[in-house]
Amino acid sequence: MDIIEETYSLIKTMKVRGAGRIARLAVKALSEYVNSVKVESPKELYDKVLKASYRLKSSRPTAVSLPNALNYVVNAAKKSFDMKSDVETMKEEIQNAARNFTAMSEGAIQRIGEIGGKRIVDGDTILTHCNSEAAISVLTNAHRQGKKIEVLVTETRPLMQGRTTASILSKRGIDVTLIPDSAVRLYMHKVDKVVVGADAIASNGAVVNKIGTSQIALIAHESRTRFYVAAETYKLSPTTMLGELVEIEQRSPLEVVPSSWRRKNKKVKVMNPAFDVTPPEYIDIIITEQGVYPPQGIILLMKELYPEPAALQSGTV
Ligand code: RUB
Prior knowledge:
This protein has 317 residues and is α/β, with parallel strands linked by helices. The chain contains twelve helices and ten strands. The mean pLDDT is 97. β2, α7 and β3 (175-179) form a beta-alpha-beta unit. Residues 17-21, 63, 130, 132-134, 161, 197-199, 209-210, 274 line the site of ribulose-1,5-diphosphate (RUB).
């Protein structure tokens, strides 16, 4: 299980982060694990795949891309096992599924960029939050389509993922300004569109993304600024169709204040939620690789892609 434990730790400690990246890393780990694991029977292989995928799923709780990606691979294992394949064939089919997921994910990000880039117009000032491959793809495509854009990037405390975004966009030749999270309302009058990514999208169109996203959406709503979400369809959370909630990850207080400060201020409680929920009323469109949806329309796409969410809830995969 070495590769599984290594990957668990890379995701948990956020050395690899972002909903799409952790999904691809997890399926890659599962595939490598399957390649090297020694088993006596297809049943043993299937059980090990299930166990490894449970472990990987538990590394971070909010990004639904993680269980969706792993379920995609586990489903291939189950199908192969049900077809009474031998161990070698099962291994091959599992590894193919992992490769397919990765290719699909990378293609989706590119397609979202092409679709979303068209929604940006020449001269737009756009605000983005945190570090999202899908949102960056939209901004990069708009820039490559020859539109002159200016991007405001929030720092994204406490871990400052905004610096990564600012650096990437700037290296691609885009005019970028980094601002503190608390300056969003001051600058919103300059902003034409907000573009953010997503960790999970609920069946009512609510979007779970980096903490602070919902505050930005509220400010955008107040000033009638358009609010776009760029997200691959594997960010849709099928179990929300059954009334399940998306768990919001609480991270260590030490990401907010150093331990020396905590020792001196023992009575102060420190909370560090990593994500929040933006209600559908504050979102104009969700840009997916399958097209653009109003948040209220996302349920239709979800029902098409996940016809049997109860199977996921029962824990069979
Ligand atoms: C990252 C974050 C990103 C989404 C979408 O949070 O909230 O906006 O994951 O990213 P963290 P992407 O840094 O805590 O992982 O579009 O790259 O999947």
